From TrEMBL:
Annotated Pfam families: HTH_18 (PF12833), Response_reg (PF00072)
Residue positions where 4-aspartylphosphate is found in the record: 55
Domain Response regulatory: 3-120
UniProt KW keywords: Cytoplasm, DNA-binding, Phosphoprotein, Transcription, Transcription regulation, Two-component regulatory system
Record InterPro entries: CheY-like_superfamily, Homeodomain-like_sf, HptR, HTH_AraC, HTH_AraC-typ_CS, Sig_transdc_resp-reg_receiver, Tscrpt_reg_AraC-type_HTH
Domain HTH araC/xylS-type, residue spans: 444-542
Record-linked PANTHER family: HISTIDINE KINASE-RELATED, TRANSCRIPTIONAL REGULATORY PROTEIN HPTR
Compartments (UniProt record): Cytoplasm
Name assigned to this protein: Response regulator
Domain of life: Bacteria
Taxonomic lineage: Bacteria, Bacillati, Bacillota, Bacilli, Bacillales
SMART domains in UniProt: HTH_ARAC, REC
Amino acid sequence: MYRALIIDDEEPLREAIRILGDWKGLGIGEIYEAENGKSGLDLLKQHDIDLVMVDMKMPGLNGVDLLQIIEKDYPELLTIVISGYNDFEFTRQAIRSKVIDYLLKPVNRTDLNQALRKAIDVLDAKRKSESDIITQNITLNMSLPKLKEKMYLSILDRSFRRQANEAFLPLIGADYPGNRFLLSVLRMMNMDEVRRARFGGDPELLDFAVTNVLAESGDGRLQCFSFVNPRREREVIAVFTLTDGRAEDLAFQAGHIIRKAASSLHQLFGLKTAAGIGGPQQEVTALASSYASVKAWFASLDVLKLKDEPFTQTVDQAAAADTYPVTGQLTMIQKAFETGGLTHAKNLLRDFMNTIRARETFSLGDADRTLQEFDIILREACARKGMNAGAAAMPEEARRSAAGIISMDFASFEQFVQVMHRMLEFYSRLAEEEGASGRPFDIAEIKTYIDRHYFEDIKISMFTEKYFLSREYLMKLFKQQFGHGIHEYVQKVRMNKAKELLNDSGLKIQEISDMLGYKDKNYFSKAFRNYYQLSPSEYRASTQTN
């Protein structure tokens, strides 16, 4: 049995790790806890610890300093970093210290147990062999999934800078000129259906299943790293890296793996996917061009010809598809819906769908945009009809739907038509129920909430989900009424309150920072200076001299 140590100054996180970890299944028999780096070092001296989990930002001895001490005094100790801070110094020290994994808060069960499994695999290997070479190779082969994902995302959005990321290049094979790279994108066509039917509605379980199938579909001759794109729903990105191989070999092998994975996902879970495969690249940053081409190919797919089954295609360079104007037709449906003419709205929607069906082509990009716009205008129409009360009593699935997360599953044009009609019917029922008992929406409710809860972490998504309004529409209404954006108003209230609190000489600046909802005194001081052109201390001094 192994021993583990959790070092974190937040008791709730330590408790969450205890609950989420599969300790018994991993063979970890004893778990120790420390609330700071100093007490963590004391426990390391008292007990024979095999694995330590370290928070990077703690009072006193922080994670960076602690890792340096561990690296020097406990070179065989395995470490997992847990942090809510995406700071370069933290990640650089994590790599230098050869940590097993780097997990971002909030920690979820899947990522935590994957990281723990990696550590146990290393510990098991060490017990089987005393060879330093074997131990070193196992450790160096451990990846930092979240960091790799961030690097690839920065490459795809063209914000990656090689010089600034020099220390991280080995993680993605970008340090070796003989490597070749290839990118593929999978779209999950019936994601919501499979998530509910096979994974209890848990998106993380489905994401793990998809990336795991991709990893297991490889043949050992090239590396595959895949992740669910956090910026685009339904999208899975797979990056293939081949060392000292021909571009033709990379294209053939990656294509084989993608087709095999798509087939496995369909057989195992009933998941239908469409996959675009980019061309081989000599430079890792060229994956951005591949991604743009694959995205354009997806957007140009003809929904009228989509078949309800998995398919893949190699994409060299996709031309942009013509955009089909839909706003006019959707606005007509919205007006009929608002005036209570549901039957008329349904007839208009049916005619609209028949018009599209009669076209030669209707692109996937246009279909996605149509669904998104239809969702927005129906929610806004509901708000104008008086819908906003009773959300707390709605079932979770209904609240998610009302917030714009109605299932967008469609793998054929007929399924697309069904989604459009279900959306109209859903909002019609919701407007009727809410209109009967609810009161008209008043933008002043948001102002009142901010005035009372300015010290909390206020996000606009809180209001979009509560009032069924789009972010853009809500922000526009607020600014028209009060002359400030929502974020600007939160800042204004906090800064006015800061002045009031600073007039009380008995309060320390750290206490005022906490009372205003700032977790970092330095951040509060910077925000205050940006707002008033002087620091909190300078303001306090000026009031005392007057």
